[in-house]
Amino acid sequence: QVQLVESGGGLAQTGGSLTLSCAASGNVRNIAIMGWYRQDPGKERELVAEVPRLARPKYADSVKGRFNISRDNAKSTVTLQMNDLKPEDTAVYYCNAHVRVLDDSHDWWGRGIQVTVDS
Predict the structure, then answer these.
(1) Which of 4, 39, 84, 96 would be a feasible disulfide site paired with 110, CB 3.0-4.6 Å?
(2) Which tens digits make up the pLDDT trace of 47-89?
(3) Is 71 exposed, middle or buried, given 0-12, 13-18 or 19+ CB atoms closer than 10 A?
């Protein structure tokens, strides 16, 4: 099992910045990918950004150039720096850890953290 604890988030003005952090514990050595997803009420959860253990990050087109994801494998943490925030970035953000063990894989999720961008 993997436990994920998120912090950061809150309220920001349009054009402002916020930082989300996520710390993983438990079976962290098998975490292949860590990332952030977000979800608006009534919509599906969507990928914001993710970073594999030994590969380049991947970003949703809507956040490219504005958000930066970083991962510290030694500390099992992932951070999302969000700049130039827009009202459409408002959502609940979820930390994700994708674990792979041999041919089996499983996704673990944090409880979610609210980000609100005020226009």
Answers:
(1) 4
(2) 999 999 889 999 999 999 999 999 999 999 999 999 999 999 9
(3) buried
